[in-house]
Amino acid sequence: MAATYYLGLDIGGTKSAVVLASLPQSPANELPTLHDRFVLPTRAAASPRGLVDQLLQAARQMLAGLEPGAVVAGTGISCGSPLDSRRGLILSPPNLPGWDQVPITEWVRTATGLPAWLLNDADAGALAEWRFGAGRGCQNMIFITFGTGFGAGLILNGRLYSGIDDGAGEIGHVRISPTGPVGYGKAGSLEGFCSGGGIAQLARLMVLEKTQMGEHVAFCDQAGGPDQLTARVVGEAADAGDPLAQDILAVSGRYLGQGLAILLDLLNPERIVIGSIFARSQRWIWPAADEVLKHESLARTYRRCQVLPAQLGEQTGDLAAISIALEGERGAWTT
Q: Which of 113, 183, 197, 255 is exposed most, by the fewest CB atoms within 10 A?
């Protein structure tokens, strides 16, 4: 059976990519076949238009290499919030300085002649994990980005729920402690405790406590000092057996458990899928999170919900963008 092709654009704070993928015309949630990919640093261009033009030039070259008569359904675009998916506008994401009121779907449609659809990265990640990853087979799922930021994409009753203006799922903005690491502009927010930057802040605080008591913290010295601490450094130290690194991730886990309890009691999902840092460091984060979650959430709701690490790994960004195009083709949004 002939395949249908899809383009995907993943606009990130560090790097951006365009990918060409295909699926059979009657896919049973099988993984798309990735045919081509082009990646460049997001700051490689002086302006949003310059970056998008480079991505679109690569996209046109990919399309030109297809066999005559190949069916290309459209382009999915994934980008950080805030944005306006209905009008196809990127609205000043914090990790994309200068990307103000960018009409990206219009640019893509004009350059390719194809329909184009835009979603935020959490919603797009939810679609990808639901269709192709750890969320397959369920109708009520929450996908959580536990990386640069902390946000949720919501699949409710078999459909993506994004709210009236793409603001649903911003659980990282919720303050869960009067004080603490800063995330999403708030000290003590869930994102402050459960994100790459938040864990780095937490690590600096907890390392400082140790050094002020005269204790030596080897992984801090190996990283080059407190300012060089990252969630990855902490995770690798925890894996190597460092008790302080394990404690740092356990603290993050306890606050994660509080946040998950809110989501469980509010939305009663079948499954929660958590990506990035959680998927890498689940061994150290989850026991503390699970203990709090079991205590704080309704017993029946807790028993019915699975919490799983994301499955798609490094392919998440590509498959998230392709998933947007799949949903657009099926009529989820107008172009």
A: 113
pLDDT surpassing 70 at residue 334:
no
Residues 6+ apart with CB under 8 A from 28: none
Does one domain contain both 116 and 241? no
In one-letter notation, the amino acid at residue 67 is E
Structure tokens at 31: 């993984």
* Residue with the two structure tokens 């130290």: 237
Q: What is the mean pLDDT of residues 294-314?
A: 96
CATH number of the domain residue 299 falls in:
3.30.420.40
* Ramachandran category for residue 285: left, alpha or beta (phi over 0 → left; psi -120 to 50 → alpha): alpha
C-alpha distance from residue 331 to each of 108, 110, 246 (Å): 18, 20, 46
55: containing domain: 3-128+315-329
Q: What confidence category does residue 330 fall into, taking pLDDT thresholds of 50, 70 and 90?
A: confident
Number of domains into which the chain is organized: 2
Beta-strand pair 116-120/71-79:
parallel
Cis-peptide into 309, omega within 30 deg: no
What pLDDT score was predicted for residue 93? Answer: 87
**Domain-embedded: residue 335:** no
Nearest to 131 by CA among 1, 23, 2: 23
Would residue 163 count as lying in a domain? yes
Residues 63 and 212 in one domain: no
* Residue 130, phi then psi, degrees to nearest 5: -70, -45
Strand runs labelled E in the chain: 3-11, 15-24, 33-41, 71-79, 83-84, 89-91, 100-102, 116-120, 141-146, 150-156, 159-161, 182-183, 186-187, 271-274, 306-309
Residue 323, amino acid: S
Domain identity same for 259 and 321:
no
What's the DSSP call for residue 322? H
Q: How confident is the model at residue 335 (pLDDT cuts 50, 70, 90)?
A: very low
